[in-house]
């Protein structure tokens, strides 16, 4: 009995010992800060060099390197957000990573554009949904002016932080605002309209009369909106077409990160006779796009969220277009308006639409392109109903 | 006696230090300053009362998950189903929390108990299948993880019975009532105390009670247990039930103390983490607590580490792997630090229960 | 700590008797009966709707392939006396290294080899901890899992692409009704999985290698007495088994064409279930993996065709509920090799 307790106490003591050891490490850092300075100078020099590179290929401004770089620049450095003349913009991701080729990345690209315009920017990747509040709080504590939170799941934590910190401005991507709060703008999108246009196109270009959807999970409202909009679009242009759709059978934690399932399911859809596959589900969907691409032009695929011609190059052999949510310009517009003293609050409806056809502009018959062009303003204005009710 | 205790502590401490050093090397190689990173982690985990509160909050489900795995090991059973059991416990405690209005002294224990009991049903099912049909618990608990995840997802999905009417189309339950919220005392979560109490109870159960003796006997040698008149079926079902109860209670504490509602997809790593912690603690119920605090501190500190450097938080898993390695390989630690001690480290043999039907 | 494994009397592969060591093929009639039922059901289904049946059959095999390879990795380890619960980590490491190599070299063969090498090194690590350090094997496997997930997530940077793995329809055979799509129109790693079942079966039950492997797994001290180098066999076999896990990891890339953090999504653990369900026998593994693959294919198909108006979460439960149900009804008791999980020390 006594030994057991001793062991427990000793283990706890051990823990604190380790803690103490780390603590002294920390002190060492501060004491020996000359090393540190040297290092950060190096970093800065590197950054400069890289920025020049970047300037030469502006198109690639959104490369991952850039993300690392912004981060490097601020690492170890003092965060200058206490000064009034520096605009500081922080971004908190949903569970997932900053380079997800999807909404986290799109929002971060918007923030980076603000960074290019002189703002001080940084991001925190959320590991566990329990940490939303903590991660937002980390930026609040550092006196950030604007905090962008990405994903519907952060809505509540964002509102809580906004109420507690009325001087900080919050942008909530994909966060529907029930009642307007002065310092929160919810950037939301009519995904069903983008889905409808994609569906309309799919209905027109299918030859087998079967179109498929490979989807993330119905637990996430935008996915459902995309899906039901797509259903409506197909029915609008091709009422006889068969639509086969399946959601990922796993929960939130795997539904968007399972490209193998996406690919196998897309293949099963092709085996079912589908010749157009709409893949809406992050990495899961991207796997589906890549699988359809293996058909070498025999089947078409449609991407989602961003123009996936750029983000998923392996899908280019089949990618006719993408049902886009323009998150990047939405974030930039909101923050710019806030800076101009005209801060939006409540819901800010971002733009949606179809991406360029790229190489398929010469494959898709002109009359189909014309029909979509004609249909687009009617859908976006609400004149043609998508059939989706939230 | 004293020297023995000192040695038993020295090795784990060295293991943790070596684990951190190994992780630090990786951080250094990837172009960051390990000291800055660890400094951030430490401050984020223990810097002030809030930070300590967060660490303990993180550690709480880890204690429970670790206990669940550790207890099942005692009976020679490998419960990989902690994740599913946690989800059931979390969702059902949320249901009691939002559905019923009761005074707090009744509401909180009731919600905790319901969560634990429903989860224990899932574990007992795996135990029953094992004892009566020979279905290996590793298979059944893995499969039941997926079943439980889908079931709880559906319960709060927009077509599900427990969906939050005020949540738009969001998949989540309503907030639990105030009377069901586990309070914080001085910024520190009471849920952690519940977890510590559970660890003490399990320690007592294993080392002092008749049931514990039966469990250990079945774990060591089911045949001998049968000869001794112990019902292997009863003990298997009971051990899996208790193990799952612990995991479910972890989910319930998390719901009542932190999330205050049920949302799909939280704490997804618990299945993994529970195994890690049980092994770090060498299946000793009391040692589960510091092991969980260690892992919880790393999790809690990762936010600030990320904000200070650009070290991706995934580094934590790598460090954990190193720590676990050094804990389990004392001979390597001795070799590295040229430590001369007797071979007082007892080998642990968890594999014994692996195949026994 | 000398191993004194109790001499088992009636285990699955009767290690005590020399006759069985020489390789008696034992067929489990319950699994066979299950397969027969599925085959008959497939023919009937094909008469009813050839397209849907073909789609499900093809998905079944595609879905089963990585599970087969991963479960065979576990099987060889266990047959050699070492529990491997680190398959998940091995697959992730293989997928990561395979992707990085394929992506930077543009060569898929190099990628596969890189993946196999990575998983093989992890296998050697497991053997080293078990043989040299006498570490508990559950812990060692857990270390591989945590390390695999952590290090690949930490090092991975998005934005790379690799050449996609082509499908290799086998000319002449792929046009056969049903069977053509099911067996002869897949990617190379799917074929590799099917071939591996036969190879491992023959090797395990018909060769000296297999005899020694099983001897080491069942009764290492007896094997030692007759001159089998127990440690060497364990190192070598874990390295070979790791290569199979490497193929399993690359089989995920064959579908996905891209690496993703945590992309195994528990397949390594499901492979453990498949191995136990398959009773530590290659054809048992094949049956179990096919069964699991079938339920996965079925759930997608039912959702595609809106066969029932139930929430997608219930479709998602189908593979898991049915696997448990099949196991419970069949009442398959498994008995792993006798010396499993125990360090062996020479006397």
Q: How would you summarize the topology of this molecule?
A:
The complex is a heterotrimer of chains A (390), B (357) and C (347).
Chain A (H helix, E strand, L loop, with lengths): L1 H30 L1 H24 L7 H11 L13 E8 L7 H14 L3 E7 L5 H10 L4 E5 L4 H10 L4 E5 L10 E5 L2 H15 L4 E6 L5 H17 L4 E6 L4 H4 L3 H13 L4 E5 L1 H12 L6 E6 L2 H4 L7 E7 L1 H13 L6 E4 L2 E3 L11 H15 L10
Chain B lengths: L1 H28 L4 H13 L2 H26 L7 H18 L4 H30 L3 H20 L27 E2 L2 E2 H19 L1 H11 L1 H6 L4 H28 L10 H11 L7 H21 L6 H14 L1 H8 L20
Helix pairs in contact in B: 1-2, 1-13, 2-3, 2-12, 3-7, 3-10, 3-11, 3-12, 4-5, 4-6, 4-10, 4-11, 5-6, 5-10, 7-8, 7-10, 8-10, 11-12
Chain C lengths: L17 H4 L7 H20 L1 H30 L7 H19 L2 H24 L5 H19 L23 H5 L4 H19 L1 H11 L1 H6 L4 H27 L10 H11 L4 H23 L7 H19 L17
Helix pairs in contact in C: 2-3, 3-8, 3-11, 3-12, 3-13, 4-5, 4-6, 4-11, 4-12, 5-6, 5-11, 8-9, 8-11, 8-13, 12-13, 13-14
Q: Please report the total strand number of chain B as a whole number.
A: 2
Helix percentage of chain B: over 70%
> Strand arrangement, largest sheet of chain B?
1-2
The helix content of chain C is 55-70%
> How many domains of chain C, as an integer?
1
Largest sheet of chain B: 2 strands, antiparallel
CATH class of chain C: Mainly Alpha
Shape of chain B: globular
Strand percentage of chain B: under 5%
Residue-averaged pLDDT of chain B: 88
CATH architectural arrangement of chain C: Orthogonal Bundle
Provide structural commentary.
The complex is a heterotrimer of chains A (390), B (357) and C (347). Chain A has two domains: 83-189 and 326-351, 3-Layer(aba) Sandwich (Rossmann fold), CATH 3.40.50; 191-325 and 357-380, Rossmann fold (3-Layer(aba) Sandwich), CATH 3.40.50.2300. In chain A, 49% of the residues lie in helices and 17% in strands. Chain A contains 14 helices and twelve strands. Chain A has helices at 2-31, 33-56, 64-74, 103-116, 132-141, 155-164, 191-205, 221-237, 252-255, 259-271, 282-293, 308-311, 327-339, 366-380, and strands spanning 88-95, 120-126, 146-150, 169-173, 184-188, 210-215, 242-247, 276-280, 300-305, 319-325, 346-349, 352-354. In chain A, strand 1, helix 4 (103-116) and strand 2 (120-126) form a beta-alpha-beta unit. With 357 residues, chain B is mostly helical. Chain B has a domain at 55-272. Chain B is 71% helix and 1% strand. Chain B has helices spanning 2-29, 34-46, 49-74, 82-99, 104-133, 137-156, 190-208, 210-220, 222-227, 232-259, 270-280, 288-308, 315-328, 330-337, and strands at 184-185, 188-189. Chain C is built from 14 helices and no strands. Chain C has helices at residues 18-21, 29-48, 50-79, 87-105, 108-131, 137-155, 179-183, 188-206, 208-218, 220-225, 230-256, 267-277, 282-304, 312-330. In chain C, helix 2 (29-48) packs antiparallel against helix 3 (50-79), helix 3 crosses helix 12 and helix 3 packs antiparallel against helix 13. The radius of gyration of chain C is 20 Å and the shape is globular. Chain C starts with 17 loop residues before the first helix and ends in a 17-residue tail after the last helix. At the A-B interface, helix 1, helix 3, strand 2 and helix 5 of A face helix 1, helix 2, helix 3, helix 6 and helix 10 of B.
